[in-house]
Design a protein that fits this description.
Blueprint (H helix, E strand, L loop, with lengths): L8 H21 L1 H26 L4 H32 L1 H23 L3 H16 L3 H28 L1 H11 L5 H40 L4 H11 L6 H16 L4 H25 L1 H4 L3 H15 L1 H20 L4 H7 L7 H15 L14
């Protein structure tokens, strides 16, 4: 059976659904290969301007790529070193935090017994049954494989990035050769827009992370919260995950604040500070730094994050947003997929100011001109 534009709508939709299903299934099966490659593509595009700058200074391509990778490794390593030192200090206080959490848990259980009439024995039985179900899963092997995948990612990432930057001209020629010559302009436009999107997204993301980390850390330090720097940087890193990361960071900060602070009001002010900064970030920083290039609506962003996490785990949470943005760029240039590009896009958020400006402009054009009055002559 041949699928064409004349086929019934349900046949075309079913065929496209099968294509999406097999793509997702392929991503799930081949994630150990695709995830390091996807991170390498992002890093390669981010380092491409620096590599081009060094090559324009008559530095050989191999040396230029090596210098760029070295600077990237130093930058990422410094962040990992800072977080590891903060985590080491945090781990030392885990027994004290656990003891305080047990005290708060006993208080919560007593409140449940008084208000909901559920005895402590019934609560403990439910918790024990839940713990038994959790133990049935082999978390040790899952953790081992997760650590192994992280080590492989660290090893393969610089190798993939180096090779992508070294063979970038070959990859470009391959992309042009795959499609027909009459589509060369669209292929060039997709490549150009994808590079601009990834570069601006990654650069803007780093700038946004730095600003959010400084603001969160300063706010928590002023409140006197313990491990303020750690929680400020952690919230900035988790903020990469749209709509979910900041909630996770705030919840974790609140739980630790409950065990390390003697003032109950600190919990309220932690939520106010972190979500106040998050609101400013979403409404001011992201539209100016990131959203101007992505143009992805919030619904698709959330669905992309959930789908990415279900397919490839934590890595999918970080890769989902640029992947959806690149999908939109491709849909906008492929005939028959423009409707999906409209669905993925966001032409509403941030356009109110433009619409208001256009309305004022129209009103000015419709305003009747003042009738010039003849000058009054001075007659004696």
């Amino acid at each position: 059976m041949q699928i064409s534009n004349r086929s019934p709508l349900y046949v075309q939709f079913g065929f496209k659904f099968l294509v999406v299903f097999f793509i997702c299934y392929f991503i799930y099966i081949a994630q150990e290969i695709l995830v390091p490659l996807a991170f390498a593509v992002l890093l390669a595009v981010l380092l491409l301007p620096l590599v081009n700058f060094l090559e324009n200074r008559n530095i050989p391509r191999v040396l230029a790529i090596a210098i760029s990778l070295f600077l990237a490794v130093v930058f990422i390593g410094s962040i990992i070193y800072f977080l590891s030192t903060q985590i080491a200090n945090f781990v030392d206080d885990i027994p004290s935090i656990k003891r305080h959490l047990n005290d708060h848990w006993l208080t919560l259980q007593k409140w449940i017994r008084e208000k909901m009439h559920i005895s402590l024995r019934e609560q403990n039985e439910y918790l024990n049954n839940t713990a038994e179900k959790i133990k049935d899963r082999d978390y040790i092997s899952d953790t081992f494989f997760s650590i192994t995948e992280a080590i492989m990612l660290v090893i393969l990432l610089p190798i993939y990035t180096f090779l992508i930057l070294y063979y970038r001209d070959l990859i470009r020629r391959f992309l042009y050769a795959v499609f027909r010559k009459e589509h060369s302009d669209r292929v060039a436009l997709v490549i150009k827009q994808s590079k601009l999107m990834i570069n601006s997204y990654m650069t803007g993301l780093l700038i946004e992370m730095a600003i959010v980390a400084v603001c969160n850390s300063a706010g928590l330090v002023m409140l006197g919260i313990k491990y303020a720097l750690f929680f400020g940087v952690l919230a900035a890193v988790l903020n990469i995950i749209p709509y979910i990361g900041m909630f996770t960071a705030t919840l974790f900060t609140v739980l630790v604040t409950m065990t390390t602070s003697t003032h109950t009001s600190d919990i309220f002010w932690v939520i106010v500070v972190m979500y106040g900064i998050h609101i400013l970030d979403v409404n001011i920083l992201m539209p100016k730094i990131i959203a101007s290039r992505l143009r992805i609506n919030a619904l698709i962003s959330i669905l992309g994050v959930i789908a990415g996490g279900a397919l490839t785990g934590v890595s999918g949470l970080f890769l989902s947003v640029p992947a959806v943005a690149m999908t939109k760029i491709i849909c906008d240039q492929v005939e028959g997929l423009q409707a999906w590009g409209i669905l993925l896009g966001d032409d509403i958020t941030g356009s109110k100011r433009v619409r208001l400006y256009e309305r004022i402009k129209v009103l000015k054009l419709k305003r009747p001109e003042k009738i010039a009055r003849p000058p009054v002559s001075d007659q004696a």
